[in-house]
Amino acid sequence: xxxxxxxxxxxxxxxxxxxxxxQDLIRVPTLNPPGDNYREICDYLDRRLLRSGFHTELIRAxxxxxxxxxxPRWNIVARREGATAGDCVHFNSHIDVVEVxxxxxxxxxxxxxxxxxxxxxxxxxMKGGLAASIVxxxxxxxxxxxxxxxxxxxxxxxxxxxxxxxxxxxxxxxYFSPERVQHVIIPEPLNKDRICLGHRGVxxxxxxTKGEIAHGSMPFLGDCAVRHMGAVVAEMEESLFPALxxxxxSMPVVPDGAKQSTLNINSIHGGEAEQAGDYTGLPxxxxxxxxxxxxxxxxxxxxxxxxxxxxxxAVLERVREGRETFDYDIRELHRVLPTMTERDAPxxxxxxxxxxxxxxxxxxxxxxxxxxxxxxxxxxxxxKNCIAYxxxxxxxxxxxxxxxxxxxxxxxxxxxxxxxxxxxxx
Length: 426
Fold this sequence. Notes:
The chain contains ten helices and 16 strands. The strands form four sheets. A six-stranded mixed sheet has the order 1-2-6-3-7-15. A four-stranded antiparallel sheet has the order 10-11-9-12, with helices on one face. A three-stranded antiparallel sheet has the order 4-5-16. The chain is of the alpha/beta class. It is elongated. The protein folds into two domains: 3-199 and 338-423, 3-Layer(aba) Sandwich (Aminopeptidase); 206-272 and 281-336, Alpha-Beta Plaits (2-Layer Sandwich), CATH 3.30.70. The mean pLDDT is 97. Strand 4 (113-114) and strand 5 (117-119) form a beta hairpin.
């Protein structure tokens, strides 16, 4: 039996272990926010990877955004050296999951197996991918114990809230430097036969409109900040949203609707703060003197970040021209530039070859509509040879009854093992 088939058979033989590992990971409720049980899941991964011959490090992102003594940001990085010198292949998965939400028909942290699927929060995004990368590495080591180079596996914090207590922190400490790591695969759920080359950019900002408080029975004596914000939204509807819809990218972004520039109004808060749930009284009659709106602007590789910001400011200035007392502040919250790995990069070529060997067809090449931790590996780590590849359907992420297909995980693990063969061949 040739080596490719040996690896595929070895991965398939570990199917039950792959299922059990995924269930165990789902059953640790690593909710973010606030950042629960990070140490528990890192300790679990530590025990597993030590048994497989990895050297492990548990690293707290001390002082990073979100880190506190109540909710410390723990990460694990495991490394296993080969028999001879060579490149390092790193599989990076985030350990955090988003809130459960409503509408579940299964236990969100039960890891229930039904109809060839494993259900639970994080099953798809991305504990199934983490489990697949571990099993792929263990299968590869069993069949190719004398490989060249090194294999790394990491479980990192806070991807769902920006990754600053996880991959960003580790990148700043040199864990993703090109001198240490040469190839990175992030097992995000982009489908088992697709390679994700990168993502669009993001610019978050908070807009505040200002007014003057007065008695609600005499609003003419005040200045309503909520009405001012309504004028901002109306101007966005009139001019900005149509303009963004006309901007299209050559990036292979999926789904098709994300091939254009987009803007989401994340939240609007104006007037009195909401009272606690046990408050039974009425609100006081006041004209709101402040209104805040958070916007989430996703932009294309063809756009400049300065242009993105200028478009929003232009909206606000047009509103100012038509409203005598209009005043505002704008504050940037977050920015990430678009990134896209070249299709001829070594990790892309190796995973593409592995997909073709597994499925008998060439992969699709896609770009994610939203960002993920490739942004930190690229910008901070200065490592361009990075992709997302993993099992699962992106549309299921953050939804009720999230699941990952067992066969998808097995086949993705086979792809990962074959990519290791190609990149670490001795």
